[in-house]
Amino acid sequence: MSTTIHDSLDARAQSGAMDDSSDPDPEVPERARGPRRYSAKYKAQILEEYEQLDKAGKGALLRREGLYTSSLISEWRKQRDRGALEALAKPAGRQPADPRDREVARLRRENERLAGELDRARQVIEVQGKLSALLEQLATDSAPTDRGETR
Fold it and tell me: Where are the alpha helices (DSSP H) in the chain?
């Protein structure tokens, strides 16, 4: 009994082997998706449902919703306890900077710049004073004496 190429391809297809044309696309997406954002209403609904379930049900709820960390639930509880829907509506992450802090930083930079300019101006004045004294000394040294001669 002889086996042909056609027979071996049929056997491979029947065994469930994949052919080369069904390889996944090797291209990497241009940009990954950013962090998920949750509305206050969604957070409240999930918290309410989560707190009514047993341990196995809680895990199933987290998997179903794609929440792979229970720290989200504890953070949402804290937000709820601090201020109900107002706190739940706040986005997670760093709080925006206080405008007064930005103004203080700007004024400090300006102060440092002006202090540098003042130091340079003082140095220029000092050099001008020394130059003036030197020129005065040269003028008096080269002034004519009684006999009309220079020293």
Answer: 5-14, 40-51, 55-65, 71-89, 99-141
Q: Are 89 and 40 in contact (CB under 8 A)?
A: yes
Q: How far is CA 10 from the centre of its chain?
A: 56
**Tokens read off for 64:** 């179903």
Q: What type of residue sits at position 124?
A: V
Q: Is 79 exposed, middle or buried (0-12, 13-18, 19+ CB in 10 A)?
A: buried
Task: Render pLDDT for 15-59 as a digit per residue (tens, 0 to 9).
Answer: 544 445 567 777 766 666 667 788 888 888 888 898 898 888 888
Residues 6+ apart with CB under 8 A from 92: 35, 75
56-79 pLDDT tens trace: 888 888 888 888 777 888 888 888
- The alpha carbon of residue 138 and the mean position of all alpha carbons in its chain are separated, in whole angstroms, by 63
Distance from C-alpha of 102 to C-alpha of 143, rounded to nearest angstrom = 61
